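The data are passed on as follows:
___
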Amino acid sequence: MGHIHKPQRVNATTPTFYSGSPIALSFSERSNKNRILLLNTVTGWEPESIEIPVFRELLKITGNLEKLQQKLLELQPRNGLASLIEIELKEGNFDSNKIYELDQLVDNFKVEGYEIVKHRATFENKISGSGELYEQKQQLEDLQPLDVFQKLVDKQEEDEETRKELMSAFNEILEEVHQSKRG
């Protein structure tokens, strides 16, 4: 049956059943009810579906930074196999500080019986490419890297001090790139 993990009855002339995988194999399968099939030929040919107990829970927590913090604080310590957690930060506008805070939240998370195994950030209002910053008549290759980066920084909701730090860091990197090309 390949990558089909859900239990199902296969449409065939002879009753055919596929029990599916005994455990969830990805976070998208966290709500699947995994089962085994028991065929008792004495009582008939219809298999009995027996749900497999869940020994390791897969949890997905989604929301803004405050909501993520709140949900993680609400987790109660537990015994047995650690529940695995996938976290998705969802924010309106790109903010590099939010990504840093998410990383800190994950790094500092310690509740017995839980482990964060995957995390990511998504931003609703994002620029998918630097070409969106300019009018169509401008060619990106005609622009200077510093100008493109400056436009990206201008689009962010950062304070002036952070903007200056970003530009200073970019200038240092740009200078290193230029020196490595000369050397």
The beta strands are 8-10, 16-18, 35-38, 48-51, 58-63, 83-93, 114-125.
